[in-house]
Every structure is written in C-alpha cells, then in structure tokens.
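In the laboratory, one determines a bound structure by crystallizing the protein with its ligand and collecting diffraction data. In a computational setting the workflow is compressed into a single prediction: the sequence and the ligand go in, and a structural description comes out. We illustrate the idea with NAI.
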Amino acid sequence: MRLLAAEQGLGPAAAAAAVAVSRQAWLLPGRQLQWAGLTSSASRSAAAAAAAASQSGSTGGGGSGSGGSSSSSSGAKLKAVPERIGFIGAGQMGEALIRGFLKARVSSPGKICCSVRDFDRQDALERIGIGSIFGDATEGGSEEVARFARIIFLCTKPQAMPEVLEALAPHITPDHLVVSIAAGITLVTLEEALGEGARVVRVMPNTPSLVQSGASAFCLGRHATQQDGELVETLLSSVGFCIQVQEKQMDAVTGLSGSGPAFVYLMIEALADGGVAAGLPRDTALALAAKTVAGAAQMVFSDDETSVLGMVHPGVLKDRVASPAGTTIEGLAELESSGVRGAFIRAVKRAAARSKELAG
Ligand SMILES: NC(=O)C1=CN([C@@H]2O[C@H](COP(=O)(O)OP(=O)(O)OC[C@H]3O[C@@H](n4cnc5c(N)ncnc54)[C@H](O)[C@@H]3O)[C@@H](O)[C@H]2O)C=CC1
Ligand SMILES: O=C(O)[C@@H]1CCC=N1
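The predicted complex, in structure-token form:
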C-alpha cells in the first residue's frame, strides 16, 4: 500500500505534488485499460483527465500568443499547433472551440479562419481577433477556407452538412485534414462526400471546451494517419479531456458528453430551485448548486485506496456523504422514488438514439 504524503512528513504543497505524481504513476502512458471498448490512447487521456481534475481551474492562461508551447487543461506542456485551422460554421460549439484553442494558446487568431453565414457570427469572431472571416461555405467560403487552412473543422448543424460537404469537396487535397463535429454524421458519409483518400476525423466535443473543461471523443477515418490523430488529440486536450473511441461508440458519446452539459445544467437549475424553496436567495442558491456539482465531479478524480484508473466510484462517494438517519439519505430516497436515476439513463439513451437518427 502506498504511504500517504502526510505520513511521509510532507507539507500540504509537497503532499499535493506527491498525490499528483502517484496518480500519474498509476496512470502511466501505455498502461492498458481493462475496460472494454477503450483504445490504448485512452490510457493517456484518462491520465490527462485525472491530472486535469486534480488541477481544476488551471487553464494554460489567457491571451493569444503564437508559437512555442502551451499548457493543456491538465497543466502538461503542449506544443502549439503550427498548422492553420479553418472553421466552417462558428456557432455555439465552433466558437467554444476557437476560444478554447486561443485561451490554451495552442493556436492564435492569425492562424484561424472561419466561414460564416451570419453577421452576428462575424462580429463575435472579430471581437476575439479572428481576421480571416469568409462568407457562406456554399457560396465560396469553403474554397477560401481550404486555401487558407490545412485543418478544417466542420461545425455546422448535421442537417446542413450535405450542402457544406458538396461545396467543400472540390477543394480538398491530400494535404487537408477534415475534422467533423456534427452529431450523427458518420466517417463513411464524410469520406464519400469529400472524395477518395480524404483524411477525416470525427469528433464529439462539448461546450465546456470554452473554459478548458471539455470532454471530447474522436475516431479516425480510413485515411487519417496516426499523426492526424495526435494532432486532433493535441487540439482537444488543450481544451479539456479527450479520448479516442471506436466509431460505433460515437452515438453513445454524443448522448453522454455531447448533450450531457445540458442535462447537468438542468440539474443545477433544479438544485438551485430546491435551495430557493428551502429559503435561500436565488444567487446564493445558484452559486452553491453549481459549486457543489463542480466539486462533486472533481472528487470522482481524487486519489484514494478505492480508486481505479484515477477515479473513485461515485457510489462510494455518495455513501460517504450519507450519514445514518441523516439528511442526505432522506434526499436520496426521494430521488430514487422519483426515478431520477432511470431518467438520466433514459435521457442519455434517447440522445444517443437521436444521434444515430441524424446519420440519415
Ligand atoms: N452545441 C453543442 O453543445 C454541440 C454541438 N455539436 C455539433 O456542432 C455542430 C454545430 O452545433 P452548434 O454550434 O450548436 O450550432 P449553431 O447553430 O450554434 O452553429 C452552426 C453555425 O453554422 C453556421 N452555418 C450554417 N450553414 C453555414 C454555411 N453554409 N456556411 C457557413 N456557416 C454556416 C450557422 O450560421 C451557425 O452560426 C452541430 O453539428 C452539432 O451536432 C457537437 C457537440 C456539442
Ligand atoms: O443537441 C445537439 O444535437 C448537439 C449535439 C451534442 C450537443 N448538442
């Protein structure tokens, strides 16, 4: 059994560092995950997640420097990506990624271009310093993006993808890497639309990427190289946790971590409502609710004698909160009798099923 840092006579800072080191040792790169369905790169990503959680709030700093290295959300040094990056569509998720990349300094405004359809998007991008803003992707924008950038993120709605892919296809060369974040749109659809040999990666990010706390999964197309995978991993790791999965798992990822932030916001809102109902002012209730959710999530990545792969089972943590004949068990009983557990399971399954439907 490992000695706790405190038992070794270390102060709080050294103790924290020792815990981080022991966690990293537990999650050494290359350590094989035992869980089914996760690829080997998952072990690197799980280590990043554990480290990220142990350093909550660390973001790699603001600003928009270029070149050199940057910090991932885990605090690890990342190389800034030298390739120019294009975005086709920059709404909620596209802008979250752009802002996240800039905050992490993995790219810089001069190395990013966007094709946008609306004036409000153009204004929003200009405000964060993006200078190369082209028009609608179906009206010349995609050609300009392909000329400017070697990595092209497709960030339009799935329903808009057929026309976007059709407009982009003639301009894709073997030098381009195309990264789609569209829910449901499969690698085969992307590859067939973009033409033989197109290097494609399918990603499912989520909006907390904006604050370097994203959770993303990706899978590689037939012609994407290992370097392409590493490049995408570098970009996604700069804005949070990232894991490589098999494509057949992407709908489940979409239902869980893609849509999941909305489910959690609903939970935070409801918790805050409960606080108000119990007598708290709204702002106090909301702050307590959100901090409770963030802290509870962080605890899953804490290191103790029960942790596996840097994670403590939430059931163990739940039991530690609930005192015999106390307050928590009363609340838990209410949640269970209301079917909340089943509701979350069904919500993820339904969102995953919708992702599959979007494939067409
Ligand atoms: N919102 C989220 O939390 C997540 C979204 N996604 C995926 O990201 C994609 C975008 O979703 P959102 O950002 O939520 O949608 P959004 O509607 O906020 O953004 C899409 C943007 O694409 C633009 N657009 C549409 N057609 C265009 C064209 N021909 N040329 C240039 N721009 C065009 C729209 O004007 C809009 O600004 C979707 O495919 C979705 O499945 C993936 C993960 C999470
Ligand atoms: O709601 C949607 O369809 C997108 C995909 C995942 C999150 N938002």
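The longest helix spans residues 282-300. Keep in mind that any predicted model is a hypothesis to be tested, not a measurement.
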